[in-house]
Design goal:
about 325 residues; mainly alpha
């Protein structure tokens, strides 16, 4: 009886971890598309890309959330709307504006390098949570993560810049800003979900979309004031398709998978899952550039896989005899 009762919680924990990992991989595969989107519509500014994506996200979220609006308003404490506001700003509006600028100024590889440090930042912060795995047990995983991130962008940093030095520095600063912004979102979002068990991960994502859509509307006057180059019907059609596609795949589906994962995994392991966004961003970049990965990039893939594996081992519950 003791053996069976001990086995059930272990089995349940293992299943939850596997489901969380699957959601993390799926979210990474969908989020990796956001690195490619600025290249697909390079003749549009990062501000226009941000407005287009999040207007689409907000409208789709509004249509999906309307049938449950009254129930959600009752279930969500009023103060949590402020939380939604800063999470939408940090994890969506500001992050994507900075990331698009980084990709267009510094390239996909350099941006992936900087964003690749997200797992380190989130895991270190998450190690302070009550009951979290001690940081010393995560050191092998963190070292592998850092090594992989360095390998990913090494050539981008040492190769001659395709643009001016000022443009490259601007892209690097934007990437660092995106790193800080999304680290704040990842930690804050996981903790907000933990405080709100009465709100499903999917509904939380849709509410975040509503707030993000409202924020993007506030950016429209700024975009009009800044002016833009004239675009033809074909360019606008491509821009609309990319905006809606990224909104549906990355913002709706990807965020839903991420929120589900955030409830299944501890924050220290959630941080490691961000690596899959970097991996898929690189994969899409290679496909876009029509080339095979080089030696350093293959080494980075091995480091990423080993990093996640060692992190999982650190979180594995110990069997009781």
């Amino acid at each position: 009886m003791d053996t069976a009762s001990a086995a059930r919680p272990l089995s349940s924990a293992s299943n939850g971890t596997l489901a969380g990992l699957a959601c993390g991989v799926g979210a990474g595969a969908l989020w990796g598309l956001v690195f490619l989107a600025p290249e697909l519509v390079r003749d549009f500014t990062p501000l226009q890309l941000t407005i287009g994506r999040y207007l689409a996200y907000g409208l789709i979220a509004l249509a999906l959330v309307l049938p449950r609006w009254q129930r959600l308003v009752v279930a969500l404490p009023r103060r949590q709307w402020a939380t939604l506001g800063w999470l939408a700003l940090a994890g969506n509006t500001v992050y994507y504006l900075l990331l698009s600028s980084a990709v267009q100024s510094g390239g996909i590889a350099m941006t992936s390098l900087v964003i690749g440090f997200l797992p380190v930042a989130v895991t270190v912060i998450g190690s302070r949570d009550h009951g979290a795995v001690p940081l010393r047990r995560l050191m092998p995983s963190l070292l592998l993560c850092a090594t992989g991130a360095l390998c990913i962008g090494w050539q981008a940093l040492v190769a001659p810049a395709s643009g001016s030095a000022g443009t490259q520095v601007f892209g690097l600063l934007c990437a660092i800003g995106a790193l800080v912004s999304w680290t704040a979102y990842a930690v804050g979002n996981a903790r907000a979900l933990a405080r709100l068990p009465q709100v499903s991960a999917h509904d939380w994502n849709l509410l975040t979309g509503l707030v993000t859509g409202a924020q993007s509307l506030l950016l429209v006057p700024l975009a009009l004031a800044m002016g833009s180059a004239a675009h033809g019907i074909e360019a606008w059609a491509r821009f609309g398709a990319v905006s809606v596609g990224v909104a549906v795949l990355a913002s709706i589906a990807g965020n839903a998978l991420w929120n589900r994962m955030s409830r299944l995994l501890p924050l220290t392991l959630v941080g490691q899952m961000i690596l899959f966004e970097t991996l898929f961003a690189l994969l899409y970049g290679w496909l876009w550039e029509q080339r095979w990965p080089d030696t350093l990039e293959i080494a980075a893939l091995c480091c990423v896989v080993a990093s996640v594996a060692t992190c999982m081992a650190a979180h594995r519950p110990k069997k009781r005899l």
